[in-house]
Amino acid sequence: MTNTIDLSPFIDGKRADPASQRIITQIDPSTGKRSGEFAAAGTEAVDRAVTSSRQAYEGVWSALPPVARAGMLKALAGLIEANAGRIAAADCRDMGKPIGTGMFEAGIVAAGFTRYYGEAVDKWPRGAIPATDAGAFEMQVRRPRGVIGAIIPWNFPAINLMMKIAPMLAAGNTVVVKPSELSPGSASIIAELAMEAGLPPGVFNVVQGDGATGDALVRHSGIDMLAFTGSTATGKAIMRAVGESTLKPVLLECGGKSPELVFADMAEQDLDAIAATILGGAMQNQGQICVARSRLYVEAPIYDELVGRIVAMAKATTAGDPSDPETRFGPLASARQKEVVEGFIAEAESQGGEILCDGRGALAESGGFYVEPTIIGQSDSSARIVQQEIFGPVLAVSRFNGAEEAVRLANCTPYGLAATVWTRDLGRAHRMADRIDAGMTKIMTAPVQRMGAGFSHSAEAAKQSGFGIEGGFGALDSYSRLQAVEFHYDDAP
Question: Can 268 be counted among the known catalytic residues?
């Protein structure tokens, strides 16, 4: 597939000169062949984008009443929904996302986040604090941060984009986005749709580029806040860069190594359905998802039976051409990602891990970056395959005996993004939620999937998985600052 999307920077409502000779070559993950190229935005282009966003923020956007911002966001949601096919095709070509999955992610999830914040912005709770005496009154007001820099990862290009910028815009900020160089197409399309939806020029600017582009954005003195989703290593680098340049708040959603615990009291439930749910949670997006439940711990009495079913289902899962609407499991996003994943598998095997299902070598004739579901029995909790994020379709499985060991194993990594606990004992469920270090813990008493809080869901990561609330009303708080306004008055008659 050849890339026909204009990937030059989108600044002040139009395409702009990248002001750089750094050329990024795009590779189709399904074939390993070149699919296009674009020039990375240079420091001058980043500066123009920040200046444009500052002018838009001070000139019009921050002063608009919430209902006006709401109308534009809801219009943008409708346009994203209507253009889901274009956005999905871009993600398919850029990072190998199966086209059917991409349609859902753009048309339902990305559009849904945008619409949610369009509906939420004029219902965002503000507060007044009771006075300590009769002659005073304090009002606490949420103010926009200003110009926010957003660095978006490649694994869910459309979802991660709108999950970040929709609450930013709703709260009255303007945005400069740097999408991943592996998946630049979605942001480019949606920036154009934003203009069609009526957003003023400069409110939503996009600078396509590489790490140098991102560094220029992070260090820019005109950026009032920085929001990043990606690896913990890059998150640490961003913190260092911010410390060395300008003081600004940072929201980080970084790596994860999320555990899934299954207690023996689930034995009487539908184990096939439980196995399918567990496999889906580990292998979604080919395992390229920060909340992948990539560590499975099963209580000893049901370990063999449940893991055997999961392995059988994994072996039956086959990868395919992501442009085929029937494909549900595509390639990894890059040659480097494939190399990293296969390196983890080889190391685990050499250190005594039991390869229960081996996904290496899939569709080798295609030239693409395919690794199918891989399951490894690994009882050593210090092994790298247990401790470090792989970001691929690899599930490490192990037994446990009792709740104390379950908690110890769940908390044995430096990450704290998500966790799942399967149990019919609600008392145990509450104790587990209290003791597991995770920004979000899902309790499963049966193999059913519910929407739950949907777009209202808010969570904040723990440990080295990051900090700052994303989702729901909490994101509006993250992308605003709290101002106290005190009134002191003469209450004499």
Answer: no
